[in-house]
Amino acid sequence: MNEIHQAHKWVMAMAEGKKIGFYESRNLKDWHYTGSFITENIGIVECPDLFMMRANDGTLKWVLGASANGKSIGKPNTYAYWTGNFDGKEFIPENVGLRLRESTNKTRHVDVGVFVEGQYSYVNRAFTEQPDNSNRNVESRAPFEGEKKKVHLKILIDKTSIEVFIDDGEIVFSNEIFPETNDKAITLFSEGGTSIFENVVIKHFNKD
Known about the structure:
It contains no helices and 16 strands. It is an all-beta fold. The radius of gyration is 19 Å and the shape is globular.
């Protein structure tokens, strides 16, 4: 576990199996749980670190790192890290994109975006009704250069399909989706950092 001093309190990052828990204390004796960060496909995490680092463009980024023991899942033992934002209670990795075919209560949607730290683009169907009860095949991924400052998305959505063209077709996703008929909302989101959405154009194509 690692302790840092921030805003007149101590913050502790503790390895807890496949997740990293965050705790705070004013006196180094009484600790209170504030949140956690769940890792994916790297095995058991150990010895987490949480610190700030200045990027090449001069901005400060929070970095969460941990040793990863992946032997139990057939992965190597390595060191993993994520960049994003830490608000004093929980860590949010950099993630930007769109929620499409979203329900009015925000619980159902298809996500398209870029996970900057993970250096991949994705289409995620986990939050819609879909037949894969195992949830093993609900997200499609493709490599993406995390250093890029801009990305162009062209997205075509039909009743049961979604086509995503990234940077004029350099990356293409084609997925079957299962939204409810009345789920038609769109939400732009940016997690763990600031993003600017420019030249957003929405067109409706009629059958006739």
